[in-house]
Design brief:
heterodimer; A: 328 residues; alpha/beta; 12 helices; B: alpha/beta; Elongation Factor Tu (Ef-tu), domain 3; Rossmann fold; 6-stranded antiparallel sheet; 6-stranded mixed sheet; 6 helices; 31% strand; globular; binds iron/sulfur cluster; binds FE2/S2 (inorganic) cluster
């Protein structure tokens, strides 16, 4: 498939779906709702934001109080395509799909969301993104969930893969019959959990007393930007909110950096120091996610570093925690 | 798909005021028959406009098909509001969540600090009439006015080995000295070959466990019930996480061996 045919494909999608894709704005690549196929950025540059807010809205109403009942509110969305998702962001979405596997709100919305991945060569992407928390494996596509995956070849042409029934239906509805099927083979590769997951878990787990956390706490502003921008941060608050229509139970994005995150009714906070919050943030990504899913709780996208006003660098911090001399 | 966040209304069948800031609510769902829980599990409890919070179920699990009880101590806006309700009002709840205490297959020591007998109440209710085991209760509280089951303590004492100590005053019928629950562990002879269930503020866990170790209680028989802020109750929102685990789902009851292996005691 050449670029013209690819643009046709994108145009067909735009005619029938809401489409989010990476586009170039000023000097940055950002993910936005697009209107024209020509807007799409094909370079594979890491966008500064993520697709997270489409999958997991920053605020979503779960129930309306009607009379004496909490009435479930499940809203339908227009069928949506997440287009041009890079391999790391696909992994982040794969994680969300598993974490929210039993969540009615997420799953309802997810039915109407299609993912279309994009690469200019995955091995190359790994180098370009300086992936620090996984080892490149040739069969990486078998362990990530997607509907369609597009590979841009050196000669500028594209080859297509389908990763699900949804993907096949989508392709065929656009009269595309030339594609390869890739069967999702589970989160964990045949040869076992990625050694990086094991190593970094060892480095982070029980490192609570490590000096690094105190050092970071001296510069970190607890602004929470890193968790907002991170594609694998998904923690939320659930609260009743009064609106003109009455009481709604809603959930909102939260952040473990926020002051009340761990505050109990009695006023006590388990995370009562910034060093503890930083450690908590890392344990989510490098300990709890692996514990539960044997999967990446961090996909190495480096957005947290790019957004951080004081340059806190997750890759470097993992190194510091792993180096033998630094462990006490 | 079952919605784990769905709160259901439960009617207050009876309300017992325990002290100035604590009330026991006897509750029944519209469909109470199919409701089952284990001692040590908790519910997410709420009122429209006031949000939710986790509260341990305090009644006997064997009576779950008829009713369940929650003991509610005022600690914030929601629990204050819950304290102002009357019989026939509704509260809203979802659950049960968490793992609960292990099966009680031998003698039982219940240790509560900071008036925290509430999470242990259910396990006590379930086992109090058993002839095959002995139960010992060690309770620490700040002041006499904070004691939750003042009315019942005398009755409990008739049946079981109950000791109570106050931090700030003395209470003649129980103790002539002041102190923390650790003092009771030190001064009392503990039941032999017993399971030990602990609840209370996190700050007391370690000192209580240290005291038990001094008395050669095996760590494999010690269990601690944790309290944390909770939102989802199902191990997703991250609010209650400790190390690699979630208090809402993997706890709230953790065995001491597990806590030690995962450095979860501070
Ligand atoms: S973005 Fe940087 S300064 Fe802000 S909370 Fe995250 S690590 Fe701290
Ligand atoms: S690199 Fe940072 S932003 Fe990206 S997944 Fe890891 S923690 Fe999140
Ligand atoms: S309450 Fe949400 S993870 Fe435990």
């Amino acid at each position: 498939m050449n670029q013209k045919e690819m643009n046709n494909f994108a145009a067909k999608l735009l005619a029938n779906y809401l489409v989010y894709a990476p586009i170039k704005k000023a000097k940055e690549v950002i993910i936005e709702k697009i209107n024209l196929a020509g807007q799409i950025d094909w370079t594979g540059a890491m966008p500064i934001n993520t697709f997270k807010r489409v999958l997991l809205p920053p605020r979503e109403v779960m129930f309306n109080v009607e009379g004496q009942e909490y009435k479930e509110r499940l809203t339908s969305i227009r069928e949506t395509i997440l287009f041009g998702v890079n391999i790391l962001d696909l992994q982040a979405i794969t994680l969300l799909d598993h974490v929210f596997e039993k969540d009615v709100y997420y799953q309802k919305r997810r039915q109407d969301i299609f993912t279309v991945g994009l690469t200019g060569g995955i091995e190359n992407d790994f180098r370009k993104y300086r992936v620090f928390h996984q080892a490149y494996e040739e069969n990486v596509l078998e362990h990530v969930m997607f509907d369609v995956f597009i590979e841009k070849q050196k000669n500028g042409n594209f080859i297509l893969f389908s990763g699900s029934e949804k993907g096949r239906t989508l392709l065929e509805s656009c009269n595309i019959v030339e594609y390869e099927n890739i069967e999702f083979a589970g989160l964990v590769p045949e040869k076992g959990v990625d050694n990086k997951i094991v190593q970094n878990r060892l480095a982070v787990e029980n490192s609570e007393k490590h000096n690094l956390w105190k050092e970071l706490a001296q510069t970190c502003l607890a602004c929470g930007k890193c968790s907002i921008v991170c594609p694998t941060c998904f923690c939320f608050d659930e609260q009743d909110e009064a609106t003109l229509e009455g009481v709604e139970k809603a959930r909102r994005w939260s952040s473990c950096f926020y002051s009340d995150f761990s505050k109990t009714a009695g006023g006590k906070k388990d995370l009562d120091a910034l060093a503890k919050k930083l450690y908590f943030w890392y344990t989510h990504k490098f300990v709890r996610v692996p514990e539960e899913l044997s999967y990446y709780g961090c996909v190495s996208c480096m957005r947290c570093y790019k957004v951080c006003p004081v340059g806190i660098n997750v890759a470097r911090n993992l190194q510091a925690l792993s180096s033998k001399e630094s462990r006490k | 798909m079952h919605n784990v966040y769905q709160l259901k209304k439960a009617k207050i069948l009876k309300l017992v005021r325990e002290n100035d800031n604590t009330v026991t609510l006897k509750l029944r769902f519209d469909e109470q028959k199919s409701f089952k829980f284990l001692a040590g599990q908790f519910m997410q409890v709420g009122l429209p406009g006031f949000g939710e919070c986790p509260i341990s179920i305090s009644s006997n699990p064997k009576e779950s098909s008829k009713q369940f009880s929650l003991i509610i101590r005022e600690a914030g806006e929601l629990t204050r509001k819950l304290n102002q309700l009357k019989a026939d009002d509704f509260v809203y709840a979802r659950g049960p969540f968490g793992n609960g205490f292990p099966e009680v297959n031998r003698n039982l020591i219940l240790i509560a600090g900071g008036c925290g007998f509430i999470p242990l109440r259910s396990v006590y209710e379930e086992n109090k009439n058993r002839k095959d085991i002995k139960i010992q209760l060690l309770i620490g509280c700040a002041t006499a006015s904070g004691i939750v089951f003042r009315r019942e303590l005398a009755r409990i004492k008739e049946k079981h080995d109950l000791s109570l100590i106050l931090e700030k005053e003395t209470l003649p019928e129980f103790s002539d000295s002041k102190g923390l629950v650790t003092k009771l562990i030190k001064e009392n002879e503990l039941l032999a070959d017993a399971l030990v269930f602990i609840c209370g503020p996190a700050a007391m866990h370690k000192s209580v466990i240290d005291e038990l170790m001094k008395k050669n209680v095996a760590s494999a028989s010690i269990y601690v019930s944790f309290e944390r802020r909770m939102h989802c109750g199902v191990g997703v929102c991250q609010h209650c996480a400790v190390g690699a685990k979630y208090v809402c789902r993997d706890g709230p009851v953790f065995g001491l061996e597990f806590l030690k292996a995962n450095s979860l005691l501070n």
